[in-house]
Amino acid sequence: MNIEFTKYQGLGNDFILVDNRGTDEPCLTPEDAVKLCDRHFGIGADGVIFALPGQDGTDYTMRIFNSDGSEPEMCGNGIRCLAKFIADLEGTSSQEGQYRIHTLAGVMTPQIKPDGQVTVDMGMPRLLAAEILTTLVAPDKKAINEPLEVAGKSWLVTCVSMGNPHCITFVEDVAAIELESIGSEFEHHPVFPKRTNTEFIQVVRPDYLKMRVWERGAGITLACGTGACAVVVAGVLAQKCDRVATVELPGGCLKIEWAEQDQRVYMTGPAEKVFTGKI
Ligand SMILES: N[C@@H](CCC[C@H](N)C(=O)O)C(=O)O
What we know:
This is Diaminopimelate epimerase. It catalyses: (2S,6S)-2,6-diaminopimelate = meso-2,6-diaminopimelate. This protein has an 18-stranded mixed beta sheet that branches. The chain is 17% helix and 39% strand. The model has no long low-confidence stretch (mean pLDDT 97). It is built from 5 helices and 18 strands. The chain is an alpha+beta fold. The chain has 2 domains: 4-123 and 270-278, Diaminopimelate Epimerase, Chain A, domain 1 (Roll), CATH 3.10.310; 129-263, Diaminopimelate Epimerase, Chain A, domain 1 (Roll). Bound molecules: the ligand N[C@@H](CCC[C@H](N)C(=O)O)C(=O)O.
């Protein structure tokens, strides 16, 4: 193996980025990803992201393996990192750039802004149980504020897909949540046949939310972009937040808008190169 990589992070959600423009399949296996993501015996990361050739008229394709080797449909912090990585590969990192990226969740459009932040058109949220995927309610129904039994307690949850599944629960105090012990129970709950990401949310103000996350396939992370988008959608549906809100995560803040006009979700946040290396 002789592969160059660049490590990026978006709010501390960190990824190994690989230039995979030469072939249509990832040049590393899910098993490789598990080894490389290991924080003691590997490079250390929440996932490995591949920049592949575009499909169906898009500029690039993004594929990602979680740190457990599973393949999610989308990654919000990851796609901001990918935009910066592409700008670097194309030698345009000092300019603004906009890319159409094919993902397993559809086409996403990240745009690098003059201040270096990246805004991503994340598409429309999917709300029906059959799309999410959850058996918590009937396939043609939305799961909004539904009771779910986890760790001996009944939680009111709202389920949203941003291409990948999210289970959101509003709590009084996010700091008091014992994520280490309950996160995995949500992830593997039988009502989520493809497992789930879980977000715990404290509403500070309707335009300011505090979030902690347990990610499917990665456990506790410092931030989750698709999660922050799903949270604002859930907050609007449950009448707990505005359509434009700041979501504060342990790694920093994201600005999320669920636009009334086109019903699409827009996410703005940072993405930074950390170092380059060779495997
Ligand atoms: N951290 C990501 C989400 C990565 C995928 C997730 N773990 C899943 O399996 O769905 C983000 O920023 O969106």
